[in-house]
Amino acid sequence: MSSGLSVRKISFAGLMVAALLGAGCANQSKMLGAGGLGGAGGMGGMNGGGAGAATPGSAQDFQVNVGDRVFFNTDESSVNSQAAGILDRQAEWLNRYRQYTFTIEGHADERGTREYNIGLGARRANAARDYLVSRGVAAGRIRVVSYGKERPVALCSDNSCWSQNRRAVTVLSGR
Amino acid sequence: MNLTATRPAKRGASLLAALIVAVVGMTAPAMAQLKVDVNKGTVQPMPIAIPTFVGGGNAPDELSQNVSQVITADLKRSGLFAPLNPQSFVDPVVPPSTTPNFTNWRPLNAQALVSGQVTATGDGRIMAQYRLWDIYSGQQLTGQQFFANPANWRRISHIIADSIYERLTGEKGYFDTHIVYVDESGGKGQRTKRLAIMDQDGANVRYLTSGDALVVTPRFSPLRQEITYAALNNDQWHVYLLNLESGQRELIGNFPNMAFSPRFSPDGQTVVLSLQNGGNANLYTLDLRTRQLTRLTDSPSIDTAPCYSPDGRQIVFESDRGGNQQLYLMSASGGAAKRISFGQGRYASPVWSPRGDLIAYTKQAGGQFGIGVIKPDGSGERLLTDGYDNEGPTWAPNGRVLMFFRDPGGANSGPKLWSVDLTGYNQQQVPTPSYASDPAWSPLLN
Predict the structure, then answer these.
(1) Counted domains in chain B
(2) d(CA A62, CA A94)
(3) What average pLDDT does range A114-136 have in this prediction?
(4) CB contact under 8 A, A113 and B362
(5) B 419-438 near A (Cβ less than 8 A)
(6) In A25-166, where does DSSP find H-type helix?
(7) Topology adopted by domain A2-46+58-172
(8) Structure pTM?
């Protein structure tokens, strides 16, 4: 439980700092990276400050060194090659540290209607789940939940933000 | 009269019985030459004079002023009436007990005149009475008198406005109604969402949930003081019923997978909703008496936002089974579905008009959202609004006005409620204390 809580705290803190600085989208994405969400950028070179300090097998290790999230194209839920690379690393890590159960949170950007985006978020979470299961992760460890468009991490209304919000985030919980 | 505590199952019945005492002073059968034609494409609003109601007894002057102001605001917002500025009135005091001096009103080019009075009766109640006059013929068109608890003065005002609207347009009014919606507060990334209910003009806001859970898409029961909605609780979407009188909340169908997008059938006995099966969402009905679940669709797609036709025989819904979101019609018992939307872009959140003649929807095309209407056979598509985000239409009970939410976009933006009539010209923001989304219009309360 405690690791799950700390995951949430880190992401919340990242958002708060960005908000206080009145940061635009580009800054915000930097802040998220520095705040420890290595997966948020997802473009390589993601090891921000403190990455080396993460204890192997910890939630921080998962976030910073593996990447906790994958991104999707507009109105799509298929796992593209970039997402597949991250999910491969997630599967490898999750198969090594089998003490964790986890939830995959599926999200949509704001350019869809409310009900549809709940369905789309579920579809994305399920796509990530199915991929991990295909890489040997036990289905019984995985819960999925859709947030639809209700929980954006990037707040502006252009593609720099939408592309960060179309995501499936693997959130570690039990151990 | 405590509306929430004492009203029986049939909405508003006791209130009406207690309210309407008499039709006032009909001296001659009213000839209805005076009429707003609501079926024309654009409407020239009818000029109407509504002098401040006179007081009486120990009723505070403020009360009679407030009543006439609410009536004026209702009629003005409808877009069908143009209330004149009271400062132009030569004869601003018009007690309903006398026939107005029409020579004072004809030069103002007003066509209709409302005279009224609010009096304290001495037993703790108020008496509100009004008369509607045709200025040119000098005839009374209608008149009524109500007794009520002073706390209900807003409802009395809305009922009077409905009655004027109905007399002059030939259509039922929609002012004595409620809106249930989602109140939104906090930053865009971590919104707190609460269910709230208010009068259709934004007055008397009450909050129905605490904000602990994300709540979306509340919908009114057509018969009872009850709503259904979806909420995210413990990492799962569930569908609930909420009794507005008792405050009692009930989880309906504790499904293993997420349940969302509920809506009542016209007889109030069934809820149609989406249930998630893996990556797909399909439509089901849940009989509220037997708790029997019936599957309506079985396709590898997102089937959601179902809505019954007013006769209960058909369901319109959105599905991306053909590649992207489009509107489909099927029998209320399921089976084959027929696509009805064929324009450019995506079509979502269909809502059937209470009159049965149109279906409103959310359209997305070219990076914009809009609210539109289409006939159930797929013809006559017409867009009424557009913008960055215009979403989630709901019909006024007379099928003439839609409410929806609009978000201009941007990092600090949030949604607000708007109404638009079927002409598309009369768009009005509906005041709410905070950001607001997912409105649902109640049936008429009386």
Answers:
(1) 2
(2) 9
(3) 98
(4) yes
(5) 437-438
(6) 25-34, 38-41, 59-61, 81-96, 114-134, 159-165
(7) 60s Ribosomal Protein L30; Chain: A; (3.30.1330)
(8) 0.87
